[in-house]
Design brief:
With 145 residues, the protein is an all-alpha fold. It is built from 6 helices and 2 strands, in the order αααααββα. It has one domain. It has helices at 2-5, 11-47, 61-76, 78-88, 91-106, 119-137; strands at 108-109, 112-113. The chain has a two-stranded antiparallel sheet. Helix 2 packs across helix 3 (61-76), helix 4 (78-88) runs antiparallel to helix 5 (91-106) and helix 4 (78-88) packs parallel to helix 6 (119-137). The longest helix has 37 residues, at 11-47.
Length: 145
């Protein structure tokens, strides 16, 4: 990292490019993994009797739009944890924040869950993009180490 910051390139560009690269890798990995798992479940349900209801259709374009939208939201929420870690200068804070975000978005209390709500992930997406911008905006003036 120190070597990268010695190049005649703005820190903001370096950090933004690293964040975009990590985001793209995680998005591709999450999307492909979900597709693989849904395909395995779908094929398994065709050959065997399923013990749970298969409520998705791999032939529907709506399925793929929803899959991509959820992957974008989940990967983008990592910017919130990144900002918390940069603010506190702690990797532990980053990990704890990411776990709290997962608990907040994926957990349920009885029948109540925020996972099926469409507004809450959209708000988290906007907040995470704001935190991504805040993580990069003052990179020239502050010491990152």
């Amino acid at each position: 990292m120190n070597l990268m910051f010695s190049y005649p390139v703005k820190r903001q560009k370096i950090l933004a490019s690293q964040m975009i690269a990590v985001w793209l890798f995680n998005f591709a990995a999450l999307t492909l993994t979900k597709l693989l798992l849904y395909t395995c479940i779908y094929i398994g349900a065709q050959n065997n009797t399923s013990s749970f209801v298969i409520d998705f259709d791999l032939g529907s374009p709506n399925f793929y739009v929803q899959l991509l939208a959820k992957s974008v939201t989940v990967v983008s929420m990592g910017f919130i944890a990144l900002f918390a870690g940069l603010t506190m200068k702690s990797s532990k804070a980053t990990i704890i924040t990411s776990f709290l975000l997962i608990f907040l978005t994926q957990a349920n209390i009885g029948d109540f869950s925020l996972a099926g709500n469409a507004v809450f992930p959209a708000i988290l997406m906007i907040i995470s993009l704001a935190f991504a911008i805040l993580s990069v905006c003052n990179a020239e003036t502050k010491d990152l180490m």
